[in-house]
Amino acid sequence: MSTYRQYQDARDAAWRALLELPEKKLPVDVDALAKKMGVEIHPFPGREQQRLYALVNKAARGPCVSLRIRRNWHIFLREKALDESHRRFAIAHELGHLFLLHDTEILTPGVRCFAGRENIGDVLDDPQELEDYTADLFAVRLLSPACLLHEMHMDSSGDIMRLCGLPPHAAVIRAERMELLNERDVYYTHMLEAKVRNAFLPWLNSRRFPEAEGAEVKLRYASEAVPVMEIHAYPQALPEILETQMENTKTEKLNGKAARNPDAPSAEAISREKENPVPIRSPSEQGENSQHHSRSSCFPDFVFRGKIGDNSFFPNYE
């Protein structure tokens, strides 16, 4: 139902949302994040609010729904139907719609709602809309960041549920995913993930957990921040990388030509010519008997066919 690109979008949006948190700790304060985004959270309206009651119940397909009334977004919760973990997940799901810029539709003049409105406060088994599927992906990754669970060696559903405040079904799914991610062991290959870990470092260093084999308690986390640029320097250093690749390819081709043709210029000679270029004059300026040489003829044809904007160039993992 989903593509890897849509999964990446949800994961990256969750990382960006984590960096926006006023307080970097687990469990994530979704109410504070909503407030920072200018989103108001309300209980379902009563029948005395006739027009609002009719709008919310018309839009809702579960115990939670978002409406944009004029220019402001509002999240409405049927709080009696949700315990604390389901309530937090439902809010994270709705924030996912906002962070992922999902399509909206007109409910009535001046009021809009998201096209995907299936929100049960836990991971949907068979969502009808792709937007609801990706909003669930976002919610799980916002509430239980893989890099923080990895740092704390948390991979069981029970531990994840207690630490992150996830509902049971979401915690089981997250534990299964953590098993796969820990087998890959390729954390911090993306700058955003490294930034999240660094932002939460004070909280990580304040947490103490017992060792697996004994009762001794140790601080497991290094006090140093992850070197973001050293972990994944491609986005900043890409032009230099491409230039180096091109120069290396030119040198290899020129050295190969020199082996086949002893009279061909060497790579060192061409490098010197590039550093100290000789002005090129037209045949009329050189005289009738002079031989005209084009500097460009010294260089082999080279076309770099890599796509700079292609995400497959960068290995992204959660």
Query: What is the total tally of β strands?
Result: 7
Given the C-alpha coordinates, what overall shape results? globular
Into which percent range does the helicity of residues fall? 40-55%
Spans where pLDDT lies below 50 across 5 or more residues: 209-222, 229-243, 280-318
Distance between the termini: 20 Å
Report the sheet-strand fraction: 5-15%
* Helix and strand element order: HHEHEEHEEHHHHHHEEHHHH
Estimate nothing, just give the exact number of structural domains: 2
Most strands sheet: 5 strands, mixed
Overall radius of gyration: 29 Å
Overall structural class, as computed from helix and strand content, comes to: alpha+beta
Strand order of the largest sheet: 1-3-2-5-4
Please give the count of helices.
14
**Average pLDDT, all residues:** 77
Give an overview of the whole structure.
This protein is 48% helix and 9% strand. It has 318 residues and is an alpha+beta fold. It has two domains: 4-229, no CATH class; 233-275. The strands form two sheets. It has a five-stranded mixed β-sheet, with helices on both faces. Strands 6-7 form a two-stranded antiparallel sheet. Strand 6 and strand 7 form a beta hairpin. Helix 1 packs across helix 5 (130-143), helix 1 packs parallel to helix 9 (191-199) and helix 4 (84-99) packs across helix 5. The longest helix is centred in the last third of the chain and has 27 residues, at 234-260. 29% of the residues are buried. Residues 209-222, 229-243 and 280-318 have low confidence and may be disordered.
